C-alpha cells in the first residue's frame, strides 16, 4: 500500500481531533451568513462596492465575508443590515445541530 489516505479517512481523522466539530460549525455559520448577505445584495442588483460603501467597509472585506472567509462582528452585521434596510436578528436556539 502506498500510505496515502483517501478523503473520507482523512476527514474522519480530522473531525475526531479536539475542537474540530466546533471549528467546522463556526466555518459553516460564517459561510451561511456571507451567503445570506450576498443573496440580499444580488436581489437588490447591488455590486459589492455599493454595499461595502453603504456599510462603511472595503469591497475586498465584503468579498471575503460573502465567501465565508471571515467571522463578522455584531457591529459589522448591524452596519450591513442597516445598509440593506433590514433588521439583524440574533437569537439562541435550543434546536439540534444540523452538522
Verbal overview:
- The chain is mainly alpha-helical and 99 residues long.
- It has one domain (10-83): lambda repressor-like DNA-binding domains (434 Repressor (Amino-terminal Domain)), CATH 1.10.260.40.
- It has five helices and no strands.
- Helix 3 (48-55) crosses helix 5 (74-83).
- The longest helix has 24 residues, at 20-43.
- The model has no long low-confidence stretch (mean pLDDT 91).
Structural class: mainly alpha
- What would the average pLDDT be, to the nearest integer? 91
CATH class: Mainly Alpha
Radius of gyration: 17 Å
Order of helices and strands: HHHHH
What name goes with the CATH superfamily? lambda repressor-like DNA-binding domains
Sequence stretches where pLDDT stays below 50 over 5 or more residues: none
Oligomer: single chain
Number of strands: 0
By CATH, the architecture is named Orthogonal Bundle
Largest sheet: none
| Strand proportion | under 5%
Number of helical segments?
Answer: 5
Q: Level of helix content?
A: 55-70%
Within the CATH hierarchy, at the fold level, what is the topology? 434 Repressor (Amino-terminal Domain)
What is the approximate shape?
Answer: elongated
Measured between the Cα atoms of the first and last residue, the distance is 33 Å
Number of domains: 1
Amino acid at each position: 500500500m502506498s500510505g496515502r489516505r483517501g478523503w473520507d479517512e482523512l476527514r474522519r481523522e480530522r473531525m475526531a481531533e479536539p475542537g474540530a466539530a466546533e471549528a467546522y460549525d463556526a466555518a459553516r455559520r460564517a459561510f451561511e451568513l456571507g451567503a445570506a448577505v450576498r443573496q440580499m445584495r444580488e436581489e437588490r442588483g447591488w455590486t459589492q462596492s455599493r454595499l461595502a460603501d453603504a456599510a462603511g467597509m472595503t469591497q475586498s472585506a465584503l468579498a471575503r465575508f460573502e465567501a465565508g472567509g471571515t467571522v463578522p462582528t455584531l457591529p459589522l452585521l448591524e452596519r450591513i443590515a442597516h445598509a440593506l434596510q433590514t433588521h439583524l436578528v440574533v437569537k439562541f436556539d435550543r434546536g439540534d445541530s444540523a452538522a
